[in-house]
Write a structure and sequence with these properties.
single chain; about 250 residues; alpha/beta; TIM Barrel; eight-stranded parallel barrel; binds 1,3-dihydroxyacetonephosphate
Length: about 250
């Protein structure tokens, strides 16, 4: 049985003061939640202060990006050991906004996954098609290419430690959610790909989140699908009441 994991991707929102306010509220409402894994991913500038608030509660901490080398002359970047030293446990890798605006590719995603695993960070690896790809019937081809490129040369044991996030780009920040059937069909495809590449044991272990306009009202229906194991939430994770409602709407499931 895969445990549901709900992660809030705060993107480039919240100063550290605002981040502490939000996470303090979340700790009050979700801090002893054990039936669902809950993770917050604030901007890098707020990680340390958010971690101080999260001490001794069940909410996990994730970062939104990192570079693959441990250190070096890479102005503006942060590394896995640096975020690990703050107490970060999860790392979002290859979000579509990073692919779209910062030139990330499946090859760089693969390097980052390997760096994260080397430092015992849990990668949340994002994949998903853009609208034109969906409309021209290329969704599965795109997903397959992203999986092959992002997970190249990973062993079964390494892959078991990943979380995958299917985020159709046309559903991100648009209010246009994939229907439960549309999402389930891609999640099932991803799990079948994992079975073919590794085996059923690996495929059954990997948690696959859905992301794209997840809100309290659509959570139960999406999370009720057999291959959807959680959500990566953008906009609705920026307010404690909507994020807490999303988590609580998962409680009756699975
Ligand atoms: P929204 O929930 O705002 O659509 O964002 C989804 C997302 O990109 C999470 O990583």
């Amino acid at each position: 049985m895969r445990k549901i994991i709900i992660a809030g991707n705060w993107k480039m929102y919240k100063t550290s003061v605002e981040a502490v306010e939000l996470v303090t509220e979340l700790k009050r409402t979700l801090g002893d939640m054990n039936d669902v894994d809950v993770v917050v991913c604030p901007p890098a500038t707020a990680l340390a202060e958010v971690k101080d608030v999260l001490n001794e509660c069940s909410i996990g901490l994730g970062a939104q990006n990192m570079y693959w080398d441990d250190f070096g002359a890479f102005t503006g970047e942060v590394s896995a050991p640096m975020i690990k030293a703050i107490g970060v446990e999860y790392i979002i890798i290859g979000h579509s906004e990073r692919r779209q605006f910062f030139g990330e590719t499946d090859a760089t995603v693969n390097k980052k996954i390997k760096a994260a695993l080397k430092h015992q960070l849990i990668p949340i690896v994002c994949i998903g098609e853009v609208l034109a790809e969906r409309e021209s019937g290329k969704t599965f081809d795109v997903i397959k290419t992203q999986l092959e490129g992002s997970l190249v040369n990973l062993t079964a044991a390494e892959t078991e430690n990943l979380i995958l996030a299917y985020e159709p780009v046309w559903a991100i920040g648009t209010g246009k959610t994939a229907t439960p059937d549309q999402a389930q069909e891609v999640h099932k495809f991803i799990r079948e790909w994992l079975t073919k590449k590794f085996d059923a044991a690996v495929a059954n272990k990997v948690r696959i989140q859905y992301g794209g306009s997840v809100k309290p009202e659509n959570t139960a229906e999406l999370m009720g699908q057999p291959d959807i194991d959680g959500a990566l939430v953008g906009g609705a994770s920026l307010k404690s009441d909507s994020f807490a409602a999303i988590v609580k709407n998962c409680l009756a499931l699975k």
